[in-house]
Amino acid sequence: MKTYRKRVYGKVALVAGASEGIGAAFAKELAANGMELVLVARGYDKLTNLATAIEESYGVKVYTLQCDLSEPAAADSITGFLEIASLQVDVLVYNAAVSPIGSYPEMEISEIDRAVQVNITTQAKLLHILGGKMAGRGRGAVIVVSSMAGLQGSGGISLYAATKAFGRVLAEGLWYEWRSRGVDVIACCAGATATPNYINSKPAKSSVFAPKAQKPEDVARECLKRLGTTPSFICGRGNKIASLFMHRLLSRKLAVKIMGDNTARIYPRGKVSNG
Questions:
Q1: Which of 263, 201, 179, 247 is nearest to 2 (CA)?
Q2: What are the structural domains of the chain?
Q3: 3-state helix, strand, coil in the chain (%, to 5)
């Protein structure tokens, strides 16, 4: 099994959507293995506080870039920052996501634009630019944080689920394209995760059969252990069992219905969470 230690991929990791939750967990795991970090997020205070804590705990250099990934020029801003700082990214973790919850026709067009920009456009551009450079050098790793919601249509979070399906499929294709060029690519299909955004959305109790929300640290650790072994995977034992049941034993129609019913149960008032 390959390892994500810096001696394999290089010494610098960039985490997009890094200020808290799964992104922060990835940053800490990578720092614990000696990698320097470039942390990118919209919230300045959370970003700088995390950077300070990581530098003090792990003794690695941490660079921060406050950047709104919903801006059309976000990818250019990131690459420009890297050029100015003379930084070469060896590991890219794209964790950022906007997750609108509710009836699709009732969403504002601006919210749809924002979700597509963050979850698809900026992600695709960064993978093209930074991942392409890794492929040119013959070394590197790309991690796309996807979601189990993207494994089928998911009513109530239809747009979010569709964008997460995009990320997974793109990562799987790049795994094939780049594996012969020394770049490992993986999509991490996470289930419900106890991130601050998830907790703040105040989800109602789910079905008794639904897997328990994972800790962000568990998601990051499992993904990094699987890096280099598979194009995509479902994170967490409970989620794996649920996925096997949903996609091997049930019809597609029933799987879609169950996902929609579960979302309606968790968010009966159609709340919106930007994860």
A1: 179
A2: 6-266 (3.40.50.720)
A3: 55, 15, 30
Token digits of residue 127: 């993978």
Rounded Cα distance between 110 and 234, Å, is 31
Cβ density class 4-26: b for 16+ within 10 Å, e for less:
bebebbbebbbbbbbbbbbbbbb
Which of 76, 58, 56 lies closest to 68, judged by CA? Answer: 76
Give the Cα separation of 39 and 66 in Å (integer). Answer: 8
Report angle CA 219, 75, 57 to the nearest 5 degrees.
Answer: 45
Residues 140 and 191: their CA atoms lie apart, in Å, by 26
Tokens 């012969």: give the residue. Answer: 180
Structure tokens at 214: 């994972």
Do residues 23 and 46 make contact, with C-beta atoms less than 8 angstroms apart? Answer: no
Residue 83 DSSP SS3? helix
Instruction: Assess contact for 228 and 123: CB atoms under 8 A.
Output: no
Q: Is the pLDDT of residue 206 over 90?
A: no
Cα–Cα separations (whole angstroms), residue 150 to 108, 191, 223, 254, 263: 22, 10, 17, 15, 13
The pLDDT of residue 266 is 83
- Write out the two tokens for 184: 């490992």
Task: Report the alpha-carbon distance of residue 179 to residue 176 in Å, rounded.
Answer: 6
Per-residue pLDDT, averaged over 251-273, amounts to: 80
Cα gap 74→68, rounded to integer Å: 7
Residue 236's pLDDT is what? 92
Active-site residue numbers?
A: 160
pLDDT in tens, 80-136: 999 999 999 999 999 999 999 999 999 999 999 999 999 999 999 999 999 999 999
Q: Is 27 in a helix, a strand, or coil? A: helix
Q: Are strands 12-16 and 62-66 parallel, antiparallel or unpaired?
A: unpaired
